[in-house]
Amino acid sequence: MTPRPKIKLAYVLARTQLAGAERQVLHHLRRLDPNRYEPVVISLAEPGELSVKIQHSGTPVLTPSFPKNAGLGGRIAAFIRLVKLLRDVKADIVHVASHEGLVPAVLAARTAGVPIILATWRRHVSSVSRWQRYAAHRTDRILVPSAELATDARDLLGVGVARLRLLPPIVDPSELFGKDRPAGFDEPVFRVASMMRLDASKGGDDLLEAALVLKRAGREIQWFVAGTSSDPVPFLRRVQRAGMENEFHLLGERGDRGSLLSAMDVYVQPSREDGLPVALLEAMVAGVPAVATSNPSVEAALRGSGARLVPASNPEALAAAIVATLDDPMEERARRQQESRRVAGPLTRVEPSVVTLHEIYDEVVAEALQRRR
Q: How do residues 78-88 score in pLDDT, each as one tens digit?
């Protein structure tokens, strides 16, 4: 019997930082059936730590140099390079990992004649651009990590439910458990952590303001933010202007997430715009009491979890929830940890997400073959 040809997958990443969407791609790359799929990653950003990890998994990373701040001529040239790359790798499927890269990736894939396009829609937003709607209508499937995001994609993007698929997030327990706390974390102080990109949508300014509120109230807390951005300097300057450089620590990208969480008393997700943050789920699986800003996906997924939810863009409410969590009696703290693990664990199991993605790939390939007949 002649073996089936491998399906050539081209994952398109808008960033190569170790953020939630990109780490989900890494999880799936490590678990793809090598007898069925032949993946390649195309990065629209300069190579970063994620690129190294992807290459270590055996997947090549290609970079067409898609500059964000280039002039029109530079962006057109980069777009042409992206089209050529997609043609050169002979992709059967283009999978856009997050909506930041939706427009250039979808337009390039259609120009290159790729038969199947998937896009992952991860954030609750109040509006979308005309170009995002245009690109969404030219995808074969839109993947969402929650039913609430499916509703948003349907309403905001105007796509039919037949093209929406639920893809559960992955949290790998081996990255979280059995890890020693990092060196230098033995001092008996309260520690609060957040793992996020340093951009406006993630609410870093609100976290810094909440830290200032609690400092003025006389609370001695050390704050740790693991994550970065294309330019972290402006945020670092805000920390310095606030006089918080001794209490508010920017750690950059961290690969030791389990070790870091093991040293924390509270995990905070202060996002202004988000979906179902993987970092929040990781903290809950690790048993760190959580405080998070609310959105439809978080409210539905974390119901009964013991996590404290507050409105977005409200540093005072964020500060109050952090203090309440720090001041929980030991029995209450243990109960919240148990409930967090109970609720978050089933949301993040590896097998359902891997199986579902394989099924989606096979489904759209079968449809494409049917169209050719």
A: 888 889 999 99
